Amino acid sequence: MSLNYIMPESSLNNQTNREIRYEQRVQKKRIEQQNIERNMRFEKRNNRLIDISNEVANEISFVTREKRVLPKRNMSTSTYFTSYFC
Q1: DSSP SS3 for 67
Q2: DSSP 8-state code for residue 4
Q3: Which portions of the chain are predicted below pLDDT 70?
Q4: 3-class SS at 32?
C-alpha cells in the first residue's frame, strides 16, 4: 500500500483575503486615475482641434472679405503699354 503525501501549498504563495482586497483597491484606483488622464488627453486634443478649426474659419472669412473689398479693374481705367512693348 503506497501513501501519497500531498504537500500543503506554501503560505508564501497564498494571499490572504485582506491582501486580495488591498490589491483590488489599488487596481481600482489605478484604473480610475488612467481614466482621468485619458479624459484630460482627450479634452486637450479636442480643444486643439477646435482652435485649429476656428483659426482656419477665421482665415477663410478674412480672405473672403479681402476679395470683396479689392476694387475690380475695368477696361476703361486700365493703362495700356502696347506701344512700349512693341
Answers
A1: helix
A2: P
A3: 1-12, 69-86
A4: helix
